Amino acid sequence: MRRHNRSPKDLLPLTTGMFHVLIALADGEKHGYAIIKEVARRTDGEIRLSAGTLYTLIRRFVQEGVIVESDERPDPSLDDERRRYYGVTPFGRDVARAEAARMESTLSMARAKNLIPRSRTS
Asked: How does DSSP assign the chain, residue by residue?
């Protein structure tokens, strides 16, 4: 794993799929199929991760120390024992926050150029 003294910004920008995987894991561990379903549900089907794409992202994120495979397992009678569960690491949470801040800054620039309407709170 390459987790030396890196800044979360070293991994930016994230692809859309990468960011959505981190959002899906932000509230707790999930197995791959649950990640795929949550991303599709949350984006109203606009983003659909294939299993191949998801597991490529998972492999990279594990190597980078962004997520980890969980040692915790649900009761075998309640779950398929072949499923692997993943959770975001503190470094991964920092990466997600850095990406959200980067995107927020970019949206602010777009608003300043009148490319998107300003929100009522702006």
From this structure: ---SS--GGGGPSPPHHHHHHHHHHTTS-EEHHHHHHHHHHHTTTS----HHHHHHHHHHHHHHTSEEE-S----GGGS-TT--EEEE-HHHHHHHHHHHHHHHHHHHHHHHTTSSPPPTT-
Our count of domains for the chain comes to: 1
**Could you read off the pLDDT of 22-63 as tens digits, one per residue?**
999 999 999 999 999 999 999 999 999 999 999 999 999 999
The residue type of 116 is: I
Domain that holds residue 67: 10-74+82-112
97: amino acid identity, one letter: R
pTM for the whole thing?
0.87
Question: The domain that contains 48 carries what CATH number?
Answer: 1.10.10.10
